[in-house]
Amino acid sequence: MMTNNPQLDLAERLALTDANRSFGLSQQVIIQAIANQDSLLEIRASLLGAYTALRLGEFSAARVLLAKTFAHLEPKPNATNEQLQLLYSTQNSRLERLLNALSIALEQHDIETHGHIARVVGLSQQLAGVLGLSQQETFALRIGAYLHDIGKIAMPSQILQKPGALSLEERQIIEQHSLIGHHIAMLIPEVPIAALEVILYHHERFDGTGYPTQKHAFDIPRLAHIFSIIDVYDALIQPRPYKPAWELSKVVDYFEQQRNQQFQSELVSAFLPLIQNL
Predict the structure, then answer these.
(1) What's the mean per-residue pLDDT of the chain?
(2) C-alpha separations of 88 from 58, 96, 125, 220 in Å
(3) Full-model pTM
(4) 148 inside domain
(5) Considering the domain boundaries, does residue 228 fall inside one?
(6) Domain count, the chain
(7) Is residue 136 part of a domain?
(8) Is residue 97 one of the residues assigned to a domain?
(9) What are the pLDDT digits (tens) for 73-98?
């Protein structure tokens, strides 16, 4: 669904071309375009502006665009231990609220994923409990789930919503979204390193044939591999423009077939009982 806002359309084009500098987009233009973040449309513009600034090499502008949003989360210099503990709890809550707003903005762009982010965040929490992940690991997994597809903000809507199979060129464009998302999320200092790994590596496969780096087996960061199972499950069980929703029995068969191919076998064993009891 392409927006009617010409500024966003321009930002999309800038984000997808190697000739960005020919447009002469300055830091001031970017900042002015997304100065007011009261709406989801402007949140999307902020992300596109930050990514465009990155592509232009204007790193300070890119940081400004996202740092303003997160400035209120910075701890006060003389905070007590009790205040810092409360701040940490409040910070996580505020961060997740903001990321939820970002996910809604993203789903306006990529209509096929309506509700996808909320579902995978919830499943991440449940699977973390099954696997006995620590509170810190669970938080990183949830943040990675919120942001895993944020790079799609720079993808053309006509590709995201294409009802048929993608061409080779279209697939190459889509496969850039994990790298783009990683670049955007790196601008947010509150995002844990493990969550950045989820964003970057959640399309890697256990057999080494995934993307973007063809990592193999246990070289794939654990949280990224955990999340890849959740992400694929939701994509299969929900209808998409290019396929109907799969029956649960077909999904289970698929995961069984993909043990130690797409997914680590032990993680499949932990995940299947969870989805069969949903």
Answers:
(1) 75
(2) 31, 12, 19, 29
(3) 0.72
(4) yes
(5) yes
(6) 1
(7) yes
(8) no
(9) 344 455 556 555 554 555 566 677 66
